[in-house]
Write a structure and sequence with these properties.
about 15% helix; four-stranded mixed β-sheet; 2 helices; about 130 residues; globular; alpha/beta
């Protein structure tokens, strides 16, 4: 039986822009990056904790891809806990990150959430949590 979720993988068009967002803007750490020349791709892992202790994000960059990826109708979003939702949203907005849903109560609930877009157009939910802000 599985014991924990290891990682989630996103395919990215521009690895450096994605790292600028996840590491530079959200405060994740670059854990490792490996080029696979025979397969013509790079796998890069980022996270708030080491892979042995926490779930991480795998960013896969296929070197020869020229067309943007389709996100599909089953895709939802990634979610990150922040200590101050409004401060985090304003800091991201000031850095040029698109805010696609302003902070406010979730539909049918009272919990405050917001959504931003990463460089590949993936939706990223931000919600207040007890964790340190990125």
């Amino acid at each position: 039986m599985p014991v924990r979720l290891m990682h989630t993988m996103l395919r990215v068009m521009d690895l450096q822009r994605s790292l600028d967002f996840y590491v530079g803007r959200l405060g994740m750490r670059l854990l490792r990056s490996t080029d696979y020349p025979n397969g013509r791709f790079t796998n890069t892992f980022v996270g708030f904790e080491d892979e042995e202790r926490g779930t991480v994000l795998e960013l896969t960059h296929n070197w020869d891809r020229t067309e943007p990826y389709e996100h599909g109708t089953a895709w939802g979003h990634l979610a990150f806990g922040v200590s101050s939702l409004r401060e985090c949203v304003e800091r991201l907005r000031a850095a040029g990150v698109p805010v696609v849903r302003e902070p406010g109560p979730m539909s049918g609930g009272t919990r405050e959430i917001a959504f931003v877009l990463d460089p590949g157009g993936y939706r990223v939910e931000l919600l207040e949590s007890v964790v340190e802000d990125a």
